[in-house]
Amino acid sequence: MLWLRRAEKTSFNERLLALHRWLQSGEGDYLLKIERRQLEQELHYIFGYHACQMTIAPGEGLLDSSQVSHINLLNPSMALTRVLDQAGCSDCDSLVISDPLHWPITPGSLDLVLLHHVVEFSERPHRLLSEAARTIIPGGKLLIIGFNPKSLVNYWRWVSPKHRRLFHGAHMISPGRMRDWLTLLGFSIEKISYGAYMHPLDRCSKGLTRELVEQRCRQWKLPIGGFYLMVATQETPGMTPVRPSWSGVRRGFSGRPIAGTSSCIRCPVQFSGENSGDKV
């Protein structure tokens, strides 16, 4: 009789660190390369003042081609922060270490938020989405990159013990379910694209064959890619400012900071930079 040992439950930070190490390997590097290429195609059309990213691959320059002025990295793991210190934080203007479920960011202050493979590994994925949605201005963009449950990436973990341990405890959220969650949070879905169709079997094929399969599958828009990239727009209407009837109240408000105190964090954390108090 074959006995399968139950894998131990790992924390959110341990999962992110394991995935980061996997992306540094040859197997994960191919996936990250395709994700960065598709992400760049969307970033050329997104503008604004402030952006924030939460990713399992800090320091990989996912937002290097972004048109947004100031890029901030929200890091949920001290282990990833130490890795980032060794590599250097060259792809962000400021770094904030925070609980992923309690963002120390003022509501309605970000033009762009990128969630890169963190929703499916969160213990409370819907709460994480709610925190991200709270910080985005009306008309702002939310980009989500997640593993596709209807792909070889998901099925391969039942064959490979290594992938089973790597994706243990992951919530493979389908694009349809993600769309429903974002709709309830006041977003409209603009686009869903897929990539890495042959992953993790891409190492068994030649470069020309691999690229041909990727190209054909993208042209046919097959929803079986290893990951999906979802582009959503915040449609919650903003409030119309009304001029106060008394004088002097305006002197009490010199600007609106980007970072502030969340409901569960007593010490406020502010983004560094000269323009951290710019109005959005």
Provide a descriptive summary of the structure in words.
The protein has eight helices and seven strands. Helices cover 31% and strands 21% of the residues. A seven-stranded mixed β-sheet has the order 3-2-1-4-5-7-6, with helices on both faces. It has a single domain (16-237), classed as Rossmann fold (3-Layer(aba) Sandwich). Mean pLDDT is 78; it is low at 1-9 and 272-280. It has 280 residues and is an alpha/beta fold. The protein has helices at residues 12-24, 26-43, 78-87, 125-134, 152-156, 161-166, 175-184, 207-220, and strands at 47-55, 67-75, 94-97, 110-116, 136-147, 187-195, 227-234. Residues 94-144 form the Methyltransferase type domain. One of its GO terms (molecular function) is S-adenosylmethionine-dependent methyltransferase activity. InterPro entries: Methyltransf_11 (IPR013216), SAM-dependent_MTases_sf (IPR029063).
Largest sheet: 7 strands, mixed
Helical amount: 25-40%
Task: Assign the CATH architecture.
Answer: 3-Layer(aba) Sandwich
Shape: globular
Organism: Endozoicomonas montiporae
Pfam family, one: Methyltransf_11
Protein name: Methyltransferase type 11 domain-containing protein
GO molecular function: S-adenosylmethionine-dependent methyltransferase activity
